[in-house]
Amino acid sequence: MSYQNWGPQDLSAPAKAQLPEVPVERGMVLEDVQSGWVGAVTRVEKSGGMHVVALEDRRGKSRSFRLGFGLLLEGQPIRLMPPAPRPAPTGAAAAGARTASGSVRVEGQRAQVAKASRIWVEGKHDAELVEKVWGDDLRVEGIVVEPLHGIDDLAGAVAAFRPGPGRRLGVLVDHLVPDSKESRIAAAVMASPGAAGNVLIVGHPYVDVWQAIRPAVLGIETWPVIPRGVDWKTGILTAFGWPHSTKEDIGLGWQKLLGAVRNYADLEPSLLGRVEEVIDFLTVP
Length: 285
What we know:
Layout: H1 14-18, E1 21-23, E2 29-32, E3 38-47, E4 50-56, E5 62-66, E6 71-73, E7 76-81, H2 91-95, E8 118-121, H3 124-141, E9 144-147, H4 154-161, E10 169-173, H5 181-190, E11 199-203, H6 232-240, H7 247-259, H8 269-283
Parallel strand pairs: 1-7, 8-9, 8-10, 10-11
Antiparallel strand pairs: 2-3, 2-6, 3-4, 4-5, 6-7
């Protein structure tokens, strides 16, 4: 019997070394190859000297996995890496550091105690987008963003809020265009006692705040056109080829979209201007 002398070898799979290295980001949807678990990244932490990532599935359940190999991103194997380091700016660079909204970052200042004034937005997704881009600015100003979950009873909500000097209210409305239901509701609210000078209602032209994300950020030319009678968000996820059957699918789809937004440059000017207008209204004496 003869034997071949193979000599010393590296038995690790060479394919692993060729996989793309992708820094983990909150909101990216990953699949664990071994267990089949699919979920959106909700947090990354260090445990026992190694990085682990928490993935939340469509039912709201969460499991943790070690960073590295064995995960799929959009069906493709990757090597999941720790978050990309963000070097702290020093000297002149620190003075010019910017928040996600593009304003100069205020270093070393704690968040202010919340003022009585508020920003109201239509829903949870609107609130999360505003927080991601303008959150640093709002904490410095002490302004809280609250979701309304619809504006059909905006007049009643404003009356209960009792706006006045030092207690102003800024409202960001989806699809605020002439002759729409939203424009009629806004006009009625602004005609109510105490609204003048203390309430500002602004809006963007989009059916949903999802559309305020620039298409190029998502790698598409334009947002899909959804036929009348089809739930808009369900239609969008269907057009993207993403899961769309349940409320959890909608939430995971939104987290994926939100994860693509880095700063104000990823949003449409028609939203940027309106949010800045509201912040100025609530903070300028």
